[in-house]
Amino acid sequence: MILNNPAELCEAVPSGKRLMGLDVGTKTIGLALSDARRVIATPLETIRRRRFRDDMARLFDLVDARSAGGLVVGLPLTLAGIDGPRTQSVRQFTRNLLAVRDLPIAFWDERMSTAAVTREMIAHDMTRNRRAEIVDRVAAAYILQGALDQLRGLSNPA
Hints:
With 158 residues, the chain is α/β, with parallel strands linked by helices. The chain has helices at residues 6-12, 52-65, 85-100, 113-123, 128-151; strands spanning 2-3, 18-24, 28-34, 41-48, 68-75, 105-109. The protein is 46% helix and 23% strand. The chain is globular, with a radius of gyration of 15 Å.
């Protein structure tokens, strides 16, 4: 079920279950995981997209193994804050995911998340190859952390 915001997501997910963040791209899916108290997001893994069925099998293996009870999916709105082609693609991906398994899901405005993460990695003198390896899962953590911070009242709603 797609929920309107992370607050509804937390109400729908049992206490003690983690949240998983997704940064859905055309070639990869970056994954991040919250702690059980839903305070800190940690980069987890990057799934190289192949076939949808295989991608979902890996995603749900991780959901089950890590006791994730809900998902925060980054929504790539345009800079004007409206849906574009990438946004529509992520929404369709989410509908397809829900057809495989019904989980509570909330979208989170992810405008500029990958750019922000990349700037930080460059500032820390990370090599281009290393950045390419981890940017998607770090972007997923950035997205998830934004939602977690809002839940704790540390940031403005997106």
